[in-house]
From TrEMBL:
It comes from Deinococcus koreensis. GO terms for molecular function: tRNA (adenine(22)-N1)-methyltransferase activity. InterPro entries: SAM-dependent_MTases_sf (IPR029063), TrmK (IPR006901). The keyword Lyase does not apply. It comes from the Bacteria. This is tRNA (Adenine-N(1))-methyltransferase. One of its GO terms (biological process) is methylation. The keyword Methyltransferase applies.
Amino acid sequence: MPSLDARLEAVLGLVHAHSHADIGSDHASLPIELIHRGQIVRGVIVELNSGPLLLARQNVRRAGLQDRIDVRAGDGFSPLAPGEVQSASLSGMGAQTMLGILDRAGETLPPALILQPNDSPRRVRVWALAHGYHLSAERLAEGHWTYPVLRLEQRGGPDPAYAGLPLDAALRYGPHLLGSGDPLARRQVWADIVRLSKVAAPGRPAEGDLAVAQAALSWLNR
Ligand SMILES: C[S@@+](CC[C@H](N)C(=O)[O-])C[C@H]1O[C@@H](n2cnc3c(N)ncnc32)[C@H](O)[C@@H]1O
């Protein structure tokens, strides 16, 4: 049975669906473990590159799950039919790659997304606000970096997660993480204040980033 690191455990913890797609799965550890733990009934893996595609096929076969996990070659959501899965995960990628995949998905985009960008979670939160997805849960996982993991759900109206929070700080650090006073989020805010205080000067981008970190700290200490 494959064991997951803290990053993929955090992703796994936010998945619950009958059918789930893992886009850019590589080793296939996540969907295999989701089936083993009974969190999904059926999985679809999509891989763009031949090496990871082969590895995913091998690992699914070794786990004896060929009848439960379908491994498909392709770009993002293109090998999926609209409505085929209730949720999808994208993990271990830069935000730019991830948002490109989401923007190309069109009608195949499922109503729930579990996203773990390696950088710029702010860009993912901004994308969610602009595309009718609410942020229903967030986690931070420790590893090589501190990894953000977001669960998004398609819903109408303004996202209540941001109500009453300073918007720029919530987009940067996460409304749920700030709201709950998450210790890793608090650590990130402090690290940013220490780092940015050394380089911030009037008119430089770091000045704005420092103001956002200070707004987050004021919120956490309110
Ligand atoms: C760094 S790996 C992450 C693997 C796994 N998701 C994880 O979190 O450990 C990124 C994977 O995404 C795949 N990938 C990148 N762009 C893709 C796309 N447009 N469609 C499908 N897979 C893609 C790559 O081939 C690679 O296997």
